[in-house]
Specification:
This protein is α/β, with parallel strands linked by helices. The chain has helices spanning 17-28, 35-48, 56-60, 94-103, 107-123, 133-137, 151-164, 171-187, 209-223, and strands spanning 6-10, 31-34, 69-74, 77-82, 85-86, 126-130, 143-148, 200-203.
Length: 224
């Protein structure tokens, strides 16, 4: 059996990691693993349980033996299941985004999801994206990329995405959430968002989606 190839893509919220990573994985014949979806699912579960997501003890109390989080690939698409329910749409709301940022700072949550992420990577050629993939989850990844863009560019893209989904929000609100999440993700005590020393920096502020995808594919192909 040939060696499994792992690509780690980290970066701030709204950098387009999911869309770009999914497209690059499809082009390369890899599976795409969106780790942010895992944290969003934990966050949604905590919200549904009525827990204060900013209270670590309250969040930990929702990590019960009954909690069942599954990542499945259906027709090539990653789908998230919470206790048997497909929550792939529910986890994409602004509330879920902020909950994900809060619960991801809880060490017990990161430990809860760590083995799942490692097992997926060990058994598949994959592109895995998140906040600490190259630094913590897959420190020996074959390719590491830090994908970023200016807060304004990211907020503009995210606002358009949410508007197209029928969600009522303003650019200013999205930008404020983006700046707050950037601060929380980069200043948390456990596995903060940062560029791995051996990661390639990819700034897509001035690039459209297709150009961004092509940039990431070229970086990966140049490394493997």
């Amino acid at each position: 059996m040939s060696k499994v190839i792992n690509v780690a893509i980290d970066g701030p919220a709204g950098a387009g990691k999911s869309t770009i990573s999914r497209a690059a994985a499809a082009k390369l014949g890899f599976i795409y693993i969106d780790t942010g979806a895992l944290y969003r699912t934990v966050g949604v579960n905590a919200l549904r349980q009525g827990a204060d997501v900013k209270n670590a003890s309250a969040v930990v109390s929702t990590l019960t033996d009954e909690l069942n989080i599954e990542l499945k690939f259906i027709d090539g698409e990653q789908r998230m299941f919470l206790n048997g329910e497909d929550v792939s749409v529910d986890i994409r709301t602004p509330e879920a985004s902020m909950a994900a940022s809060a619960v991801s700072a809880v060490p017990e949550v990161r430990k809860y999801l760590f083995d799942l992420q490692k097992n997926l990577a060990q058994n598949n050629n994959c592109i895995m994206d998140g906040r600490d993939i190259g630094t913590v989850v897959l420190p020996d990844a074959d390719v590491k990329i830090f994908l970023t863009a200016s807060p304004e560019a990211r907020a503009k893209r995210r606002h358009l995405e949410l508007t197209e989904k029928g969600m009522n929000t303003t650019y200013e609100e999205v930008l404020a959430d983006m700046v707050e999440r950037d601060y929380n993700d980069s200043h948390r005590a456990v596995a903060p968002l940062k560029q791995a020393d051996d990661a390639v920096l990819a700034d897509t502020s001035e690039l459209d989606l297709q150009q961004s995808i092509e940039l990431i594919i070229s970086i990966i192909e140049g490394k493997i």
